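Lab notebook, bench 4. Continuing the backlog of folding jobs that were queued last week. Each job is logged with the same field layout so the records can be merged later without manual cleanup. Today's entry covers Chain length determinant protein, a 359-residue chain. Filled in by technician R.K.

JOB TYPE: sequence-to-structure
TARGET: Chain length determinant protein
LENGTH: 359
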Amino acid sequence: MSEEIRQADEATGLSLAVLLAKAKEYFLEILRFWWLILLVGAIFGGLLGYQASVKSTEYPAELTFMVNESGGGGGAAEVSVILGQFGLGGGSDSNLDKVVALAESRFIAEKMFFTKANCNGELDYIANHLMQTHGLFEEFDVEPTQEGRMFTHDSLPAFTDDQRRVFLRLHRYLKVNGEQGVPLLAISYAKASGIFTFQATSRNEDLSIAMVESLYKNLEDYYVKQATEQQQLNVSRLSEKVDSLQQLLSSTEYQLASLQDRSAGLFQQTGRVQQGRLSREVQILTIAYGESVRRLETTRFLLNNATPVFTPVDFPLSPLSPMGSSRISSAIVGALLGGILVVTFLFVRKLFADALKDS
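JOB STATUS: finished
OUTPUT FIELD FOLLOWS
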């Protein structure tokens, strides 16, 4: 038994010695081509460093907010109708999903594109800033106007065919990955906290901030307006009715008082009939006026309770931090990648050479 153990130990030691010898042989083979490793590493490092230097710097602007729908179902019903017009509605979706769907709609994008913003001291439509900053005239194969703009007004029905095509491509362009691998416009929310996040990414700080703030403002205005449109109409109609009843009541009371003044308390039969009729009208109008005022105040209360409240959490602040890798880090990564590729090639080459030699 001890002889077998001794032989096994010798075999193990021999295998280990062979393995170490082979490892040394492979190491020396790879070390022999150190100049190739450095050369390829330098080439890859230079290529990735150059790519990082020519790639446009992009600036992400992030805005977070919450939506409080204290009224329950009133505001949500109107929004469901609005979303249905865009093919975005869903009976069982939460209001959070509806806000995101509406924010991604072409309608809100149009409002954002044709909001004027000041970028680098120039006041113009966000759509024109985006076209110029991202060089989209060449990409979309269109010619700007004499003023260097694509859009000179914000009336979509009055656009030319080229302007409509560019507008539709701009809307799709928002969702296409940018150079840094992120969409130009990203919309999301956290279900646990109910906090929405809008992020706009462009090659200009002012443009990124203008895009995300315009998206938020236009979404808030449109959402609140449509969610309370019916209640606003009810309040307007009731206000007109209350004003009309108040004027009619005042006029009738004045007629009754005038009749009493002329008769000095002495009424003939015809006078008593007229006085009784005016008194009944005053009573009826008083009751109707009071009921209308009560309904008006109730409707105003429901309107205030059903109005969605947008509460900003964080607005983007300049200066924004640019995203993307620096030239130095990209060059280091490229050099390491090139070196690993050469080492792998030399190892496989030596492996095949030994296999052919043994055969």
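OBSERVATION: Residues 71-93 have pLDDT under 50 and may be disordered.
SIGNED: R.K.
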